[in-house]
Automatic annotation (TrEMBL):
PANTHER family: MONOCARBOXYLATE TRANSPORTER. The keyword Zinc does not apply. InterPro entries: MFS, MFS_dom, MFS_trans_sf, Proton-linked_MCT. The lineage of its organism: Bacteria, Pseudomonadati, Pseudomonadota, Alphaproteobacteria, Hyphomicrobiales. The chain crosses the membrane at residues 14-31, 38-55, 61-81, 88-107, 113-133, 145-170, 176-198, 234-251, 271-293, 300-319, 325-347, 392-409. Keywords: Membrane, Transmembrane, Transmembrane helix. It comes from Reyranella aquatilis. This is MFS transporter. PROSITE patterns: MFS (PS50850). Residues 22-414 form the Major facilitator superfamily (MFS) profile domain. Pfam families: MFS_1 (PF07690). The keyword Transmembrane applies.
Length: 417
């Protein structure tokens, strides 16, 4: 892909920092990313299983398989993003997601559903994550947390908006119209801004990260690690260990939270209210944490978020009312929102922008595999014991281990900046 239509020599002369335009593109692409999100798929579960007679397990299996595929391709895509920038990857991701979602309206068999949804889910878990955060981390260093807050908020907005769009279309016609509406929204919102306006990094147009280049202010000092160098540091493996501990908790509790609350005596309406409350706190947490002082070590913030998730998981075991459910699940939501914001920031802060995609691609493989394991473990333990107590004990323990992994993770000090 060539340069955007806006001549590059004009970008440094704009009266504002062009990174905010890039952040706007990232936010719109992040909203569009949620086309194949679990929250969107949940809107289609009842009408599609009624239409075809599929089981809930058959439909949910596509989510896990898509994550496994993402784990395979992410280490390959990461170095490509480092070399070529995020523009091509994000444009292809938006186009692939939009077309796949619209094509789901033509599904007549479970096999075709798997082919299309697994493809879309693979893009959601791999290329989108690498493209969004590579672009963000290239343009922001000292303001990285604030920029990540807005990007995360946009993705949370997609989790709210796209299910509503799907439901309105289904109510007006049928589930096939719902998929068309979702796919069309993805293409309209996400493709054009990325195609026209996204620039690889500020140095390509004579700028510096975070601000206009004034010729006087030196660029921010940041580390420059290759993937091979990073993988020889304890920090890489401790961050990876944190990822492996925390993401089964995030996915396992999130997917099975509603049925657990119902089993604990809450009505379906009350359980749905608790889930909505969790989503609200999660979004508020992910947005607010980005505005905390950058001088605070990210490992302490990661440990605090894992602590909230551990307390929430253990607390859910003892739920007996709406109030106790909101207290426990609310703690979990606060921690979960923080984790979703902090991990991409931590990888960039520890190892720099130069090989972010290659380094993050390896870690992302671990992340999506761990996410796929959480719901499976929760379901198996529920079927074996008859309650979610054992799975919540497991997840609380894993989150506690993540606290220790975070506290042990220190920023690498070797290699000259």
């Amino acid at each position: 892909m060539q340069a955007p239509p806006l001549p590059r020599f004009l970008i440094p002369r704009l009266p504002f920092f062009y990174g905010w335009v890039v952040l706007g593109c990232i936010c719109l692409a992040g909203f569009a990313r949620q086309g194949p999100a679990v929250a969107v798929l949940s809107i289609f579960v009842v009408p599609m299983t009624d239409a075809f007679g599929w089981s809930r397990t058959e439909m949910s299996g596509a989510v896990s398989l898509g994550g496994v595929l993402a784990a395979i391709i992410s280490p390959v895509i990461g170095p490509f993003v480092d070399r070529r920038g995020a523009r091509l990857v994000l444009c292809l991701a938006v186009a692939g997601t939009g077309i796949a979602c619209m094509a789901l309206s033509l599904v007549q068999s479970l096999l075709l559903f798997y082919l299309l949804f697994c493809f879309a889910r693979m893009i959601w878990a791999g290329p989108f994550d690498l493209g969004l955060y590579s672009a963000l981390n290239n343009w922001f260093v000292t303001r990285r947390g604030i920029a990540a807050s807005f990007a995360t908020l946009a993705q949370m907005s997609g989790l709210v908006g796209l299910p509503l769009i799907a439901q309105f279309a289904i109510s007006g016609a049928d589930w096939r119209a719902g998929w068309i509406a979702v796919g069309a929204t993805v293409l309209l919102v996400g493709f054009v801004p990325c195609w026209l306006l996204l620039v690889r990094k500020p140095e390509d147009v004579g700028l510096q990260p975070d601000r206009l280049a004034d010729g006087k202010t030196p660029p921010p000092v940041e580390p420059r690690w290759s993937r091979a160098q990073a993988m020889r540091t304890p920090a890489f493996w401790l961050l990876s260990l944190y990822t492996v501990f925390i993401f089964p908790v995030q996915a396992g509790v999130s997917l099975h939270n509603a049925p657990h609350l119902i089993e604990r005596g809450l009505t379906p309406v009350a359980a749905a209210s608790v889930i909505a409350f969790v989503a609200m706190l999660s979004g508020a947490s992910s947005f607010g944490i980005g505005f905390l002082p950058r001088g605070w070590p990210v490992r302490f913030l990661m440990a605090a978020c894992a602590t909230f998730m551990a307390l929430g998981a253990f607390g859910l075991i003892f739920v007996s009312s709406v109030e106790t459910a909101m207290a426990a699940a609310g703690l979990f939501g606060i921690g979960m929102g923080g984790v979703m914001l902090l991990l991409p920031v931590a990888w960039a802060d520890y190892f720099g922008r130069e090989s972010y995609g290659a380094i993050r691609g390896v870690a992302l493989s671990l992340q999506v595999t761990a996410q796929a394991a959480g719901p499976l473990a929760s379901g198996l333990l529920r079927d074996w014991s008859g309650t979610y107590t054992d799975s919540l004990l497991l997840f609380g323990t894993l989150a506690s281990l993540a606290v220790m992994a975070a506290l042990a993770t220190r920023k690498p000090r070797s290699l000259a900046f």
